[in-house]
Design brief:
Blueprint: H1 8-29, H2 41-49, H3 56-87, H4 92-115, H5 119-150
């Protein structure tokens, strides 16, 4: 079986940036938002947070940007897990499953973060987030067990 897990790192980057592109599209179609400012994108987000009245589209814009930020906050941990698991010899099958599971959790997380407006569905978003975190920690735990057997 081929090892595809290293390819999951750039795929995770794409999944992290995708909500931002979606948010830009929203800002161009939502009358309640100013046009996206690519010169100062972080200031634009801050300005959107202070709008007097937030429309559902403006709230969705902010959730999409938050999904993007969360993806990038977790990307380094995911990359470290993939590298550690491969260097530690966990095997192609194990690493491919971890990588695929993590990517799937991020697709679900992004969708739920952007579209959710209720507490119930936000709990599902949390479950998808924690599933991804669990998959990040799995190679480290497996490697810890593997190395402890050598002692």
């Amino acid at each position: 079986m081929s090892n595809l897990s290293f390819y999951a790192i750039p795929a995770a980057w794409v999944l992290s940036i995708t909500p931002h592109f979606y948010a830009i599209g929203l800002s161009k179609t939502c009358k309640d938002l100013p046009d996206f400012d690519n010169v100062s994108p972080r200031e634009f987000i801050a300005r959107c947070r202070t709008l007097e009245k937030q429309s559902p589209s403006a709230a969705k814009y902010l959730r999409a940007e938050a999904a993007q930020q969360n993806g990038f906050e977790n990307l380094g941990f995911f990359a470290a897990a993939i590298v550690a698991g491969n260097l530690g010899g966990l095997g192609n099958s194990v690493m491919n499953k971890i990588a695929a599971g993590y990517l799937a959790s991020r697709v679900v997380y992004n969708f739920l973060y952007i579209t959710t407006t209720t507490d119930g569905l936000s709990n599902l978003r949390t479950v998808s987030f924690l599933a991804g975190i669990g998959l990040i920690w799995t190679p480290f735990i497996l490697l810890g067990n593997k190395f402890n057997q050598l002692l």
